[in-house]
Amino acid sequence: MKYSKVFLDSIGYELAPQVVTSKTLEARLEPLYNDLRMPLGQLEALTGIRERRWWEPDASLSGKALQAARKALAQSQVPPAAVGALIYAGVCRENCEPATACAVAADLGLSAGAAVFDVSNACLGVLNGVLDIANRIELGQLRAGLVVSCESAREINESMIERMLADRTMDGYRLSVATLTGGSGAVALLLTDGSFGRMERRLLGGVYQTAPQHHDLCVWNNDFMRTDAAAVLKHGVELGRLTWQALLQALGWAQGEVDKVICHQVGGVHRTAMLGSMGIPAEKDFSTYEYLGNIGTVSLPLTAAIAEERDFLKRGDKVAFFGIGSGLNCLMLGWEW
Q: Nearest 5°: CA angle at 249, between 213 and 330?
């Protein structure tokens, strides 16, 4: 996949207000730790995550996504009526139907001719949405489109803590601990054809690689989630390595030409293993998992926005986005920032 006229005009985001430390979560699990004779501190030691954020109870997913979308539009010269498509791409949704995107679009002032729908693909949803909008722009079907998402970790964490305390087995802990890395946040990416006066962050292309035989390694159903973290790490890193080689070939990039990378934010062990398998120095990567945790679809674009705010991403940089999600699916995008 290659693109010639797709630009990331702006990124708007919302950080959830409640800071929840790993120590706080482990204090609630102390009876389990005592039964398993494990010292406190395992969660941060295993993941590198000191804290993450949660929304207030009963927060509106569409409302938070709407706030992020308004921020993205406020940074641009694009009027809401010119947005030809709005895609909501979060794992978390408000209803089975209608699409959560409809609730966002209702208060944003889009035209009646805009395409409004949801996309679901685990932690890759936002990147899939970006490609959908990019394809429409490249085909000349629209001039601008929005991809929005909001993830909330509070509910699944509360449910899994109750289950872990009821189960109190090492196997239960092993399959549940990845859930405790989850954070909350919202993001909106505004993509255009460059005709609104800003031609920055040009999308050059992207590649997919999939390993669907591993679809059962991480499963989230309503109030239950289980993750075989060791297997996800092993197979995910290999899939990431193959996707990286495919991206370099597709874009005609040499390994050393890539200036910066932004990865999906899973944790310290995954980051080290993924970068190591690709031969990418750690100083080329920007991370937020230490204080924001894993925010699912929101993590990668929100991290990119913060990286730009802190002058890590600079104009002219060759930047790669590394997306990976349960399935297993991998999607990487290349940008000229």
A: 30
Tokens encoding 185: 């946040």
53-92 pLDDT per residue, tens: 999 999 999 999 999 999 999 999 999 999 999 999 999 9
Q: How far apart (Å, rounded) are the C-alpha atoms in residues 101 and 26?
A: 35
pLDDT digits (tens, 9 = 90+) for 98-107: 999 999 999 9
pTM: 0.96
Residue 87 tokens, joined: 């895609």
Q: Please check whether residue 93 is in contact with residue 100, taking contact to mean a CB–CB distance below 8 angstroms.
A: yes
With residue 151 as reference, give the H or E element that holds it: strand 144-151
201: left (phi over 0), alpha (psi -120 to 50) or beta: left
CA-based angle 320:245:217, to the nearest 5? 85
Is 150 noted as a catalytic residue in this protein? no
Q: Among the options 92, 123, 150, 218, which is catalytic? A: 123
Query: At 274, which amino acid appears?
Result: M
CA 127 to each of CA 79, 188, 225, 326: distance values in angstroms, whole numbers, following the listed order: 23, 11, 23, 14
- For residue 255, with 0-12 CB atoms within 10 Å meaning exposed, 13-18 middle and 19 or more buried, which class applies? exposed
Contact 134, 4 (CB under 8 A): no
Cβ-proximal residues to 315 (8 Å cutoff; 6+ apart), any chain: 200, 337
The CB density around residue 318, as the number of other CB atoms within 10 Å, is 16
Contacts of 80 (CB under 8 A, 6+ apart): 73, 108, 109, 110
**Rounded CA separation 101/148 (Å):** 8
Active site residue 26: no
